[in-house]
Specification:
binds uridine-diphosphate-N-acetylglucosamine; 11 helices; globular; Rossmann fold
Length: about 325
């Protein structure tokens, strides 16, 4: 396996994965329509990897353009990142999510079938579990109705992949990816006001936002704030390379889901306190009401990833929050 089509390859997780692919001898062919990233990322990736990269500005729903890519390149496998991911926006604009995340996947799979490409790594999310009955949550947990259209697109996406028996799929259920590449050349680029915790923390620390609100401190957790399993984006990127090896070594596999998390849960207050400590600064935060739709606590049972993919997280919360802050400092100079 050599040529890997990376949809959404200039996005947050996609770009970090491109770096890991090159490191491991693969040739990524990137497609991205820049709907949630910038073209500068391409140059930055070329500088990190010291490679000229193959890139096409292309919408995942454009079947004809996609066909051309498959005809031009001898694609061995696809890593499919290209999707929208803002939970709140998906409630406001569900059709935008069904169009991009579901029609996009369907268009991609049709092109794969036509071109006899069967290997795919899919970006799924722990959001498919909704509020799990217990944590750590494993892959056999009952899948409940998702609490947003975004979450539903991930559930439906997994169902579609499972129905397509011609595929060899690994669906990675990411927990909460944060952090940035050690070079500080790539990281998360939130458009407008961030929804996610860590970009909001770093933007507050640097003075773009005045204050961060902790969404609720009356949950049934040790300090009353929600618990998540934060995972370094560089570890997460490495999991995709391991998933490709798994697919290569198991040609008879049809569909496998794997949690990608550290197995450790941290509360919102623990994240804030760790951020302050490791970066030696004070954060202006206040406690506010709960955010609707939030899950109280969820963290991964990551043992399947270790067993099947031979992957486990290496970086800890300190590494994540130091690299997030360094990336924010770099963004200031951009
Ligand atoms: C959710 C999904 C995740 C999805 C992601 C995409 C779950 C469990 N997770 O992440 O699968 O990929 O959206 O965006 O459904 N918080 C604050 N103040 C803030 C921002 C966040 O207190 O200003 C808190 C939240 O209440 C939450 C935690 O920080 O407890 C993490 O929030 P966030 O970063 O938005 O991620 P999730 O909602 O967990």
């Amino acid at each position: 396996m050599r040529n890997i089509l990376v949809t959404g390859g200039l996005g947050y997780i996609g770009s970090h994965t491109v770096v890991e692919l090159i490191k491991n001898g693969y040739t990524p062919i990137i497609i991205d329509n820049l709907s949630n990233t910038e073209i500068d990322v391409l140059e930055r990736l070329e500088s990190i990897t010291n490679h000229k990269l193959e890139y096409y500005n292309l919408n995942i729903c454009d079947g004809l353009a996609l066909e051309e890519i498959f005809t031009k390149h001898n694609i061995d496998a696809v890593i499919h990142f290209a999707a929208f991911k803002a939970v709140g926006e998906s409630v406001e604009k569900p059709l935008k999510y069904y169009l991009n995340n579901i029609n996009g996947l369907n268009t991609l799979l049709n092109a794969m079938e036509k071109n006899k490409v069967k290997n795919i790594v899919f970006s799924s999310s722990c959001t498919v579990y909704g509020e799990p009955d217990f944590s750590p949550v494993n892959e056999n947990a009952v899948i409940k109705r998702a609490n947003s259209p975004y979450g539903r697109t991930k559930q439906i996406g997994e169902d579609i992949l499972q129905d397509c028996k011609f595929l060899n799929t690994v669906s990675l259920r990411y927990f909460n990816p944060i952090g940035a590449h050690a070079s500080s050349k790539i990281g998360e680029l939130p458009l407008g006001v961030p929804n996610n915790l860590v970009p909001f923390i770093t933007q507050t620390a640097i003075g773009i936002r005045e204050q961060i609100t902790v969404f609720g401190n009356d949950y049934s957790t040790k300090d009353g704030t929600c618990i998540r399993d934060y995972i370094h984006v560089v570890d997460l990127a490495a999991a995709h390379v391991k998933a490709l090896s798994y697919i290569n070594d198991n040609p008879e596999n049809q569909f496998e889901v794997v949690n990608i998390g550290t197995g450790n849960g941290f509360t919102v207050l623990e994240v804030i306190q760790t951020f302050e400590k490791v970066n030696n600064l004070k954060l202006n935060y206040t406690i506010g009401p709960r955010r609707s739709g939030d899950v109280e606590k969820v963290w991964a049972d990551a043992s399947k990833a270790k067993e099947k993919l031979r992957w486990e997280a290496k970086l800890n919360l300190n590494d994540m929050l130091i690299s997030s802050w360094n990336w924010q400092l770099e963004l200031k100079n951009k």
